[in-house]
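Input structure tokens:
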């Protein structure tokens, strides 16, 4: 993945956490999401139409709908509800940053990708990172903390959506896919908004937060995220979550004055290490050549076999 792509996805995705907190403190969560999904779907649909991008059809359309419900509706409905219940932005970022580890497990189960020792170690380290980040809430909460549950479901939605997209939606244009994701997510968000209070506490802050959320996060960040998955795979894009929580923590400190506690700090370090281990374990073996032009044994065998076919009068060899 080019550095420019990785940097843009990291910064814009991390920016979404403090902006989301600003939006939820200015209005109710589902009100913010109705505006987010509705405006983003409109902007992206216009962009796709101007670019004459192809729209998915048939079975592929159904797959895009499933991915939209997972990545957009499940993730952000749970995240924004968790923020309303008191979760700081950096805690959301640390838990969702376990996306690479969760993606590795789901890819191993549903795509048959091997885990290996390093990725298993990354899994264990990722669990410790989440527990460290959530330690304050786990020790102070009496019974099951709904914030932790909501963040866990948000993580599962994001990871499952990325793996499902890699498996079934690899050829879909990122603009039409992002437009459809937001349009599909608007349906459950609207239903929840009708069942919960729809209140705006601070009109000015809500306008600024929604504008930033729609233009920077919902439109640019998610479109780049979807496009990067199509081009580089879910595992490679998930690796960016090794850096996203730290950037989100810094932005939350600057924008909201939220300083991460000791447990979250440990979670940031261990989470980044878990993502790094996962990336090393996920790297496929590469067939390399040295400066002298040495060809590894499997490739040389294929060349010899092809030459044998030519010498034996293979029709394709004759044409070559």
């Amino acid at each position: 993945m080019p550095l420019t792509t990785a940097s843009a996805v990291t910064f814009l995705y991390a920016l979404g956490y403090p902006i989301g907190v600003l939006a939820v403190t200015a209005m109710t969560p589902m009100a913010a999401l109705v505006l987010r999904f509705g405006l983003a779907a409109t902007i992206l649909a216009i962009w796709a139409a101007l670019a004459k991008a192809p729209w998915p059809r048939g079975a592929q359309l159904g797959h895009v709908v499933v991915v939209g419900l997972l990545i957009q509706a499940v993730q952000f409905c749970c995240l924004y509800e968790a923020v309303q219940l008191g979760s700081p932005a950096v805690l959301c970022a640390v838990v969702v940053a376990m996306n690479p580890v969760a993606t590795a497990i789901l890819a191993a189960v549903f795509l048959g990708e091997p885990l290996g020792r390093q990725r298993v170690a990354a899994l264990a380290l990722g669990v410790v990172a989440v527990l460290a980040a959530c330690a304050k809430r786990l020790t102070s909460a009496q019974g099951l903390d709904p914030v932790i549950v909501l963040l866990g479901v948000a993580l599962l939605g994001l990871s499952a959506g990325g793996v499902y997209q890699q498996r079934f939606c690899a050829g879909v244009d990122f603009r039409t896919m992002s437009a459809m994701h937001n349009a599909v997510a608007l349906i459950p968000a609207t239903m929840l908004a009708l069942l919960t209070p729809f209140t705006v506490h601070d009109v000015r802050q809500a306008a600024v937060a929604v504008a930033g959320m729609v233009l920077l996060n919902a439109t640019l960040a998610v479109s780049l995220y979807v496009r990067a998955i199509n081009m580089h795979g879910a595992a490679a894009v998930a690796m960016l979550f090794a850096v996203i929580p730290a950037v989100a923590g810094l932005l939350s400190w600057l924008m909201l004055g939220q300083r991460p506690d000791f447990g979250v700090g440990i979670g940031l370090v261990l989470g980044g290490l878990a993502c790094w281990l996962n990336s090393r374990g996920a790297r496929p073996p590469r067939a390399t050549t040295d400066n002298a032009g040495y060809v590894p044994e499997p490739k040389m065998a294929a060349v010899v076999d092809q030459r044998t076919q030519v010498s034996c009068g293979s029709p394709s060899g004759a044409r070559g």
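The chain has a mean pLDDT of 80. The first helix runs from residue 3 to 26.
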